[in-house]
Structure formats: structure tokens, C-alpha cells
Design a protein that fits this description.
CATH topology: 434 Repressor (Amino-terminal Domain)
Distance between the termini: 24 Å
CATH class: Mainly Alpha
CATH superfamily: lambda repressor-like DNA-binding domains
Helix content: 40-55%
Number of helices: 4
Number of strands: 0
Largest sheet: none
Length: 72
């Protein structure tokens, strides 16, 4: 079963030795707001890109057409 975005963020936070409060501060959000987003796993693509920058990661979104294999 694939990890959710929130679960992936938690893994990276652990590997970076960062807290959720530190991530919230780096992305300009309050800690309660970030905590709510994590518990609901509710992030916009823009927020995920901002989180990736804060975590020194690359975030990629890809649509892959099943019939042709083309990635958009």
C-alpha cells in the first residue's frame, strides 16, 4: 500500500531530524495548521512544492497515460 503525502513527509522529517513545528515555520504556516493538514492529509500541489523546498527535496507530480505510457 503506497504511503500518503503526510506519511512521506513524516518519514522525511525523521530522516532530516526536523520537527513538524520547524517545518511549519519554514513554510510560513502555524504549527496547528500544519498539524491539521498532516492529520487530514490535505495538501495542495503548491503546498507540497513548498514543503519539498523546506525539506531540501524535489517534488514531482506526473500523470502517466496508461495506454501510451506518456508522462504529462
Amino acid at each position: 500500500m503506497p504511503l500518503t503525502a503526510g506519511e512521506k513527509i513524516k518519514v522525511i522529517l525523521g530522516r532530516r531530524g526536523m520537527t513538524l513545528a520547524e517545518l511549519a515555520k519554514k513554510t510560513g504556516q502555524s504549527q496547528p495548521n500544519m498539524s491539521n493538514k498532516m492529520s487530514r492529509d490535505n495538501f495542495s500541489e503548491k503546498e507540497l512544492q513548498e514543503i519539498a523546498v523546506a525539506l531540501d527535496c524535489t517534488f514531482e507530480t506526473v500523470f502517466k497515460m496508461n495506454d501510451t505510457g506518456d508522462e504529462i
